[in-house]
Amino acid sequence: MKLPILIAMVLYMAMVIWIGVIYSKKTKTSEDYFLGGRGLGPWVTAMSAEASDMSSWLLMGLPGLAYATGFSQAGWTAIGLILGTYLNWKIVAKRLRHYTEVADNAITVPDFFSNRFKDDKKILSSISAIMILIFFTVYTASGFAACGTLFNSVFGLNYQKSMIVCAIVIVLYTSMGGFLAASTTDLIQGLLMSFAIVIVLIVGVVNAGGVANVIAHGQAIEGFFDVMKYHDPATGGAVSQGVIPILSGLAWGLGYFGMPHILVRFMAIRDPQEVKKSRNIAMIWVLISLSVAVCIGFTGAALYPNVAELAGNGNQRIFIYMTTHLFKGLIPLFMAGVILSGILAATMSTSDSQLLIASSCVSKNLFQGLFKKEMSEEKVLLVSRITTIVIALIGVFIAMDENSSVFGLVENAWAGFGGAFGPLTLFALFWKRTNLKGAIAGMLSGGIIALVWPFTLAKLNVSNNTSSASSAISLIVYTLYHNKFCSIICSTSVPSINVFISSNTSSHLSISLIFIYPSQIFINVSITLVSLFLIRISFATL
């Protein structure tokens, strides 16, 4: 009965491989492979940027969160992402496109940082490349996990084997066609994602008895539509989350300033004057997609309450569950296959960009930048393709646990880029007195806090007061020299705020503010001390 679904999804995967083959013939140089020769039009730029941004989280993580807890957590996150998307396009895109070309024609984000701060020893570009490798590997794992979950839920196929097959497809068309193949498929995938979520929402609302019934069901669930509380499925009650968690949800949008797979789209647009048109296209897509994704969670809660299969991390399967239960018959089942291909599209559109950028960092910024400075274009491309395969293998290993949370994996990687790259991108573009030492300090402290957080502070719970919305702040100030206040850089992640202050002389101040959720009232300095130790080492080498 589910053969039509499988046929539709197999045809989709064959199509993206075919696109990779076509563009493999047009990719001659490393600039073509990594940046498409800076020749993207406004539609491809906009759609590839947003499709590569949202990933499977749009169709699984966000609807699942809304299904389980209601508006507050999912809604504030979506609002934050909408605001962050607009600000990124408005204040970063055009300036970055111009600046990267002026800065010795930088074709990777680490190249831009290195050229901007005249990093002759390649310290900053190397740190940037390592950060990208770490966080993109985790991010890629979340996409692979979504693929495995999709095929396991729909067809009952082995999670691990399904994930591996999807990883192979992604690696094939990405390594063959490079940036142009990734961007072209992202355009198609972005349109497919939009079609999929809109159709599922419409059919779902109709089957639920209309919008009024969906709203009535949500109102009957305690805390479901509350803006300051969220529904707790475990207790059936509402939990007050206070201001800090809401700000943390909104702060997801600040991470956009540090997302390499989005920034590289800004760098690749054909003409800086076309940024405004791309921004309008991107904002329409983001507004529709995020709003519909949250509403799918609400509709799913009305249609399928108290389904054991959707309990716990199973809530992220609500989109899959709705699709397979709402579409019946031969033609509707084929349509369901097309719709479920939207999850593949969401995953592939992000994973291809991440693999491509990570491979560019290894080949251009680590291998060629540090060891083989005279490496030929052919060898650069070969190292990039080998790196793509290696990163995919590591991502598959990380995602082997079929109970891994897509939302959680994305959250960790998002925090890493937001803390490490977001502040630096803004001040590299807008504050001329930001210097190399300050850049290294901020990147290390932001990245390390995000990297170590999930394995240390996030697991601690030393408060017995579970009903309060208390928070604690860990504040560590590190100064090398006292001088005038010159610049301040702030990014929010995990949720934390990383601030560094630097000047064009010798003033360096690094501050880490860590907001702890309720029931975690303590001050812990270990992460920051490690960060500051590494910062001191980096300064000693300059």
Describe this structure in words.
The chain is of the alpha+beta class and 542 residues long. Helix content is 66%, strand content 6%. The strands form 2 sheets. Strands 3-6-5-4 form a 4-stranded antiparallel β-sheet, covered by helices on one side. A two-stranded antiparallel ribbon has the order 1-2. Helix 7 crosses helix 8 and helix 7 runs antiparallel to helix 14. The protein is globular, with a radius of gyration of 23 Å. The C terminus is likely disordered.
Main sheet attributes: strand count, strand direction, barrel closure: 4 strands, antiparallel
Which of globular, elongated, flat, extended, rod-shaped describes the shape? Answer: globular
The portion of residues forming beta strands comes to 5-15%
Spatial extent as radius of gyration: 23 Å
- Strand adjacency order, main sheet: 3-6-5-4
Number of helical elements: 19
